[in-house]
């Protein structure tokens, strides 16, 4: 039996901005649901962070979520565990947005405590966000379960949070050695160590996601094989300007996109302004211009490429002389940054 695994959907993210809603809708309407329909898949496992905000819900965003996601989802069997973004409090999963907002959808089974379920002929251990209240119960079930596969919203050390940050704190992978496979949400970047797999979220949400492949995963409960279905839609684009000829530069794909123009070489201001004017004529959502002429000195793009906010914060912390746990500080700053993006 093949099932779809999706995680970290963050419905109502970015204050339910229309540009982000349209971007997310392209995935659901043109990729996710058509694939399930065409391949006869009727079961979905959601590994947490269904909603974005821990404290509130945007009504227009909730209306969008029902229309675009939840109503089409009503024909499927759904197993949904709670992630940290779903929970109002940090020390318990009891008050969570899926429980409060999805009660009318009888096809959606919500798990806020560790639970064993059977999908097809396979027993799977579901592990919601671990906190001080459920930690003992979770580790006891991990120790005693006979399930070969675990799926959860877990924070392991040694995996990438995104392309800029690697988690140095968190769960020890050795605690999960008994499992054949462990699939997890929480980190938005795909990565694995051969046993633990972070499957990544479906679409770009922040600049740190640029050029990082997104999508969902198909898992076979009989063979335990899995593969990714990529989302072809992107929102963030970097454009490198090197005295680029505006007349031959194709801007058609940048409509409603968020752009960062990285200026590597600019010897004629008038030609540069014509290039930017042409970009604006494509009706992008936003254009940011970053001039960094160090690139001409021969440094690699990776070293001097204009960075997103999270990358700048992470690099600053890494290079600083502060006598603190830098990994914890990076994660703290990531959380503050994401919460700031939610503020009206």
Describe the protein in words.
With 344 residues, the chain is an alpha/beta fold. It folds into 2 domains: 2-230, Metallo-dependent phosphatases (Purple Acid Phosphatase, chain A, domain 2); 235-306. Helices cover 29% and strands 22% of the residues. The protein is built from 9 helices and 15 strands. The protein has helices at residues 13-16, 18-38, 59-73, 97-101, 135-144, 269-281, 301-304, 309-319, 326-342, and strands at 2-6, 43-46, 77-81, 108-111, 115-119, 122-127, 149-153, 181-185, 191-192, 196-198, 215-220, 226-230, 236-242, 258-265, 286-291. The strands form 3 sheets. It has a 6-stranded mixed β-sheet, with helices on one face. Strands 5-6-7-8-10-9 form a 6-stranded mixed β-sheet, covered by helices on one side. A 3-stranded parallel β-sheet has the order 13-14-15, with helices on one face. Helix 3 (59-73) links the parallel strand 2 (43-46) and strand 3 (77-81). Helix 8 runs antiparallel to helix 9 (326-342). The model is unreliable at 294-306 (pLDDT under 50).
Question: Quick gist of this model?
Answer:
The chain is α/β, with parallel strands linked by helices and 344 residues long. It is built from nine helices and 15 strands.
């Amino acid at each position: 039996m093949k099932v779809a695994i999706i995680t970290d959907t963050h419905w109502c993210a970015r204050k339910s901005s229309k540009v982000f809603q349209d971007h997310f809708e392209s995935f659901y309407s043109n990729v996710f649901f058509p694939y399930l329909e065409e391949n006869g898949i009727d079961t979905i496992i959601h590994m947490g962070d269904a909603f974005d905000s821990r404290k509130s819900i945007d009504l227009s965003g909730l209306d969008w979520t029902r229309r675009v996601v939840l109503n089409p989802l009503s024909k499927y069997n759904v197993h949904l565990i709670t992630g940290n973004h779903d929970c109002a409090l940090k020390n318990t999963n009891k008050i969570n947005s899926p429980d409060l907002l999805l009660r009318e959808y009888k096809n959606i089974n919500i798990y806020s405590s560790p639970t064993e379920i059977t999908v097809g002929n396979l027993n799977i251990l579901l592990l919601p966000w671990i906190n001080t209240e459920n930690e003992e119960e979770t580790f006891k079930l991990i120790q005693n379960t006979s399930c070969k596969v675990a799926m959860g919203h877990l924070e392991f050390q040694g995996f990438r949070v995104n392309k800029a940050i690697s988690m140095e704190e968190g769960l020890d992978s050795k605690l999960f050695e008994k499992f054949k496979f462990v699939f997890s949400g929480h980190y938005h970047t795909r990565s694995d160590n051969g046993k633990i797999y972070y499957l990544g979220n479906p679409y770009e949400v922040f600049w740190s996601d640029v050029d990082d492949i997104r999508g969902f995963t198909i898992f076979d409960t009989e063979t335990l094989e899995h593969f990714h279905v990529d989302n072809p839609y992107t929102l963030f684009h970097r454009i490198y300007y090197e005295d680029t000829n505006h007349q031959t530069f194709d801007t058609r794909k940048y409509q409603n996109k968020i752009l960062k123009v990285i200026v590597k070489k600019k010897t004629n201001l008038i030609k540069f302004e014509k290039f930017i004017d042409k970009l604006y004529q494509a009706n992008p959502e936003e254009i940011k211009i970053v001039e960094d002429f160090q690139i001409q000195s021969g440094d690699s793009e990776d070293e001097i490429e204009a960075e997103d906010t999270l990358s700048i914060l992470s690099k600053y912390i890494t290079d600083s002389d502060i006598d603190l746990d830098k990994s914890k500080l990076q994660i703290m700053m990531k959380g503050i940054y994401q919460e700031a993006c939610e503020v009206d």
